[in-house]
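REQUEST FORM: STRUCTURE PREDICTION
Request ID: SP-0412
Submitted by: Lab K.M.
Chain count: 1
Length (residues): 376
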Amino acid sequence: MRYLQRERTIVETLLPGLDELLAASSLTELEAVGGPGVKLFTEAGGPGLLVPSEHGGKGADLLTAVRVQRALGSRSPSLAVATTMHHFSVASLVEAAATSSGLEWMLLAAIAKDNLLLASGFAEGRTGQGILNPALTARTDGDKVFLSGSKKPCSLARSMNLLTASLPLPGPDGTEQLAIALIPADSPGVSVKPFWGSPILAGAESDEVVLDDVEVPPELLVRTDVTADGRLDQLQTVGFVWFEALMTASYLGAVSALVERILLNQRADPAVQADAVAAVEAAVLALEGLAADTASGISQDTLARSLMCRYAAQDTIGRVLSVTLEALGGMAFIGSPDVAYLNSACRALAFHPPSRARMAAPLAEYFAGHAPLRIP
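STATUS: Completed
RESULT:
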């Protein structure tokens, strides 16, 4: 069986024609600002991938979604990263709909029917700030809630239909708790400004989204039990597990693109080829094992394991990049921008939250049994 054949077959089954269209475009074209990847994904029905089938979606579980993201990452790292942010938001809505009597199911049906894209306005792009800390400020006027501030970078900034954002709202006892808001992209006061200055992952549309006293419809507010200390409730835990798993799969897809190139290089040392495949597949198998286990539920232990998979994948990617670049040789580097581009793009997994350094103490405390897992 050819390398990545399983993953690309799954994409063809769920999103017919997408892989072929991505393969027909050059990596340079797909990764550029305004590249065709997001549009092709949307037209193939990608926004509804995780929406349950009873709401009109594809009903993909985490294992299937991991394989889809790896396939997309092998064609366009920018597309995989951008769509991970969409899927993260959808997975959170699915979890909310399962335990709520609100209107989340109507939103899910609309996402699948109308191919709506969700951007994430959480605080994960702010240096030195915890991922759970709201990136926007909220103002209340009676029952009305208004948001101001900006999120940068914000993937899918140019193509989004809805922005998901976190905000603090008083809980039943007056303590501030995290709420999730969904804001239509065409709401008065929403604007997008250029922000992303690097050519790496430019196709993810990671620009700045600005909110100027934007009113949030009450039916588009989802309250959580998360307070300022960063302890995770079930909704957040599920969202983080999906985020870490799908983002890891996306970058494993990107490094798989280099492995695929070395397998097709007849001059490459077979020992190096086999070593590169083995290293990536080991990381993939660990991630797929985690994804398969989520069928029986997601807990703090699942989140801790997802972080271990992600950090292990970072190490694997670094090692595989070294051996593949050397094996491909200088002529491959000189003859096409793809090799140098993938080398840079693959390393960006380390930039996504939460960083290994920030999570060192919380994970050590958790595995030692001293404290619940926190995301600082």
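NOTES: The first helix runs from residue 5 to 14.
Reviewed by: T.R.
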